[in-house]
Amino acid sequence: MNDSTALSELNHEQSSPVVAGEPQVQRLRDHVIEIISDSGEGAQKCGQSFASIAAKSGHGIWTVEIIPAEIEPPARSIEGASGNRIRVGSFDVANGGDEADLVVALNEQVLLGRVRAGALKTGCIILLETKWRHHQDPSIVAAYTSTHDKLVADGYRVYEIPMEQVCLQHTSTPQRGKNMFVLGMLNRLYGQDLKLAREQVAFTFRSKSADIVDRNYKLLEAGYDWVGDNLDLRFEIPSAKREQAQIVVSGNTSLALGIMASGMEICAMYPITPATSASHYLSEMFESVGGLVHQAEDEIAACAFAIGASYAGKCAVTITSGPGMALKQELIGLATMAEIPLVIVNVQRGGPSTGLPTKVEQGDLLQAIFGTHGDAPRVVLAAATIEDCFYLPITARKIAEAFNLPVVLLTDANLATAQQPFARPRLRKDWFAAPVDQSAIPEGEAPYDWDRTTGLHRRFTPGQPGGMHTLTGLAHDRKSRVAYDPATNEEGLRHRSLKLAAFQKTLTLPEVYGDVDGDLLVIGWGSTKGVIEEAVEQLRAEGQAVASLHLTYLQPMASGIGDIMKHYRQVMTVEMNWGDRVDDELIDMENRRYSSLAWLLRARYLVDVDCWTEVQGQPLKPRSVARAIRNKLTRG
Amino acid sequence: MFDPIKVLSPSVSDLDDEAYSLDDFEGVDSRWCHRCGNNAILTAVQKLCAEEQLAPEKTVFVSGIGCSSRLPHYMGTYGFHALHGRALPVAEGIKIRRPDLHVFVTTGDGDCCSIGAGHWLHAIRYNMNMTVLLHDNQIYGLTKKQVSPTSPRGLVSNTSPHGAHLEPLNPLAATLGMSNISFVAHAVDWVPSVLCDIIKQAFHHRGLAFVCIMQRCPNYLPDHFEEYIKDPERMVLLTHAQGLQVEDAVAKRFKHREEHDPRDIDRARELANNRERVPLGILYRNPDVLCYEDVRAGVEHMSVSDKISALEREFDKFTVQPAS
Ligand SMILES: Cc1ncc(C[n+]2csc(CCOP(=O)(O)OP(=O)(O)O)c2C)c(N)n1
Ligand code: SF4
Ligand SMILES: [Mg+2]
Asked: How far, in Å, is the centroid of ligand 1 from the Cα of B183?
């Protein structure tokens, strides 16, 4: 933390020459900005607005919500930091980056929280609300000054700003308007067009009175001017001109939109973090597109309800997170056995048990694939981006209905709340499920007329004359009659398994990112894609022959992955689930528990796949992954 | 079973009162033990389906796991033999998606009152339009004689070799103790005419009709219900103009009869709680309780283009146009 590297060196480009009369503008490739406050002070809205403005002007952005663990933490508390991280770049930013370059803090305690979390870069710029220096409570003054002095001593570049004092000139409730003042400040600092900012304010307060909009314009401009008059910091992040309209939503909103666009009409759920925000948005919207959200009495009931709805109509979806996923497992087995289409979304959080409810982990891959008794083949896919969160429910629904089986879609707490713009989708009619088949079943057809090659069969839905049968979770024959004889049991197992092979034949191999052969191939899945690719990029810039491969389909996997691995001297997965550390005294080849994907790859391809994992409840940082790759290259 | 005439010209079957016969509601042969009370229940529902001329393709019997939960296999309708304890939420999912289907649930005392107890309470609360038959044999049949939550205190079973330790759970009293109940009845497998009447009224009730049926398990508890069958002191027949009306020949078998208005919840609770003299008939009925599917009319048949326009409007809210 005491390294005093100049800011410009931390970024990749050099400062541009000083413009006469204007402060020196630093040109940057990207910057990580945090806005933090007590909850309720609007830091979230400020951050999201700034991100939208940056997106409009053609920048790549990735935003991360900073959420306190408690619902209502006390004001000015270290654990109460609430706000937003925005990474702005001149490229398509695909992760939240390393430590922050610039932080706006509305009090010093929440700032301290971020410092302790290791969220700030050495020498980071801090714009700090200074009203606490003049507070009537001497203990607050003392806390403020000592924190301030310590930060300065540690090399942070602290700018004290009388935010509230200036805001008071425009509003009697500066606590609520300060966020727009900060938005104005940021716009000036980063050379953003004030016109775009005004548009954003107008949009944010579109349902409010003209008075309120006007007051917020004033606050915005006040922040903008204050920086103009008082600060000699200016940054410029070049942006590319974009032609296309983009959508800016969180992963969970994207997921909900995807569910609606898939034609699924029923979502059954039981509240669980971090999946809930998707169901909140769906609850609000679903009925207007002919669907509904059912909040069941528990996750088991939610899954059973979805299965009942799927059985009687179109494929339904149930959304949950790890603990709920565990509860649904017996029913997922039923959907496999009775061959009912079902989509299960698991927004992963830290486990086991109640674990880290609000924090990210990729701990559920193996339970997604193997989590129930008996052989229960299902398709498992994972979203890597916010855009995937939209498109994959559509794909999942199609797979579930085409192959009559459960499909698990994995996302995680990182994607749930992060925002990254993606091209506005062109909605297509064929995404929506076909109407429920109610035609008569020709005589002689059986409910499980398995195709001997693919295992596929036509599903009979209640209402179809001539299709009457009793679906069962017991072993059954082609007519759905309970059958315990050895041959029939194996016939069912064989056909249900063959469907996965049939589906696997439709998969295309993902592209390798980086060199097509070399010293190391990094394999990942889920939300770590952006981070891994950025790390690989860094290593390649250092002259290393490394590449990465990112898997969307985890069960089954596309053909050809084994061949790709052969082109590299070493293979290593990078994951956010536990893998034993080889440095630990007791750990050796005989007892090492590998991370989830590494297990799968080792088992299938007989390749000595290593793993590097971090399970700290935080998204991976490009810098940490780059370091891990470097270590692997030197250590072997 | 498949009859193309019926399928292609439903109007023809409408004209013909007896389009479906009892045979149409027969599935595979029953595998229950000889004299198992489940047979009487099966006959009663098959009779109901034929009398009501329910289209077999529009009728679904949903069950959990247990001897009683085998019933759907023995029907000629659609059936969903689900998991132990999970029949009710499956049935709810079916009903929400397809209010046009006749949904029946058959469940055992372990299935409903033990592993599925949570779902049972909530199913009552949702009050979806379906008929729920609890086959209460007061024992776990399928798994070979373990104590059930409804087993009487002292009952000897494989898991209570010295007699059941606790007083039983009373499914009638538990159901009637809830809010949002709309139909609660008690039947016994050995009085088929009353059983049929009750099931018929349950079927015609709009909302969740909960019918608890004392069901004999001669295999594991051979004389278990004998006291009720033999001792006229042990049962009271409930009749009423708004409830059950019983032929004299049947009524005569009951020493105790009571005119019970099914709207009288207080008396219904008293009757349910009297374990010395168990009621037979309709304890409670209220047709005005809200049904979940009525207030969740979300699944309307919206055209895909309407859905797309609604979604496009939503996308507009999140769209960032490139700065001009
Ligand atoms: C999750 C689960 N636990 C346990 C069982 C085993 N099991 C099957 S039926 C049953 C109890 C059956 O009793 P009841 O519901 O009263 O039905 P009955 O056989 O008496 O009709 C049990 C414990 C199971 N199938 N699934
Ligand atoms: S064990 Fe009992 S409940 Fe089961 S079929 Fe036999 S008699 Fe009926
Ligand atoms: Mg039983």
From this structure: 26
